[in-house]
Amino acid sequence: MEIWVNPACSKCRSAVSLLDEAGADYTVRKYLEDPPNERELAEVLDRLGLEPWDIARTGEETAKRLEISTWERTPAERPRWIQALVANPELIQRPIITADDGTAVVGRTPDAVASMLR
């Protein structure tokens, strides 16, 4: 299992604590320091069953500067969104947990984190 975290994020710290309490075997990826490439992000999105706009933090200053909220949310625009998230990883919703069995979740709630432990 791998968890993408921003150590400054309380939701990320909470998710890590829940994984620790459960004795889960996982690795931490500080995705702001080690951002995913386009292929990795596309694979995680597929595992999540989400589109890049679904995990974009549109309230961030970078998103406002890019005017990302005005971008079309269509299959044709998917590569543009992925490129923006890769170039600006602070726009990626966190934490994201991926499991060896191919499942993944945005672990913003204790229930979402727990779903990865079953």
UniProtKB/TrEMBL annotation:
What is an example of a Pfam family matching this protein?
A: ArsC
Question: Which Gene3D superfamilies does the UniProt entry name for this protein?
Answer: Glutaredoxin
Q: Which domain of life is it from?
A: Bacteria
| Membrane-spanning intervals of the chain | none
Q: Which InterPro entries match?
A: Arsenate_reductase-like, Thioredoxin-like_sf
Q: Which family does it belong to?
A: Belongs to the ArsC family.
Q: What is this protein called?
A: Arsenate reductase family protein
Q: What is the lineage of its organism?
A: Bacteria, Bacillati, Actinomycetota, Actinomycetes, Pseudonocardiales
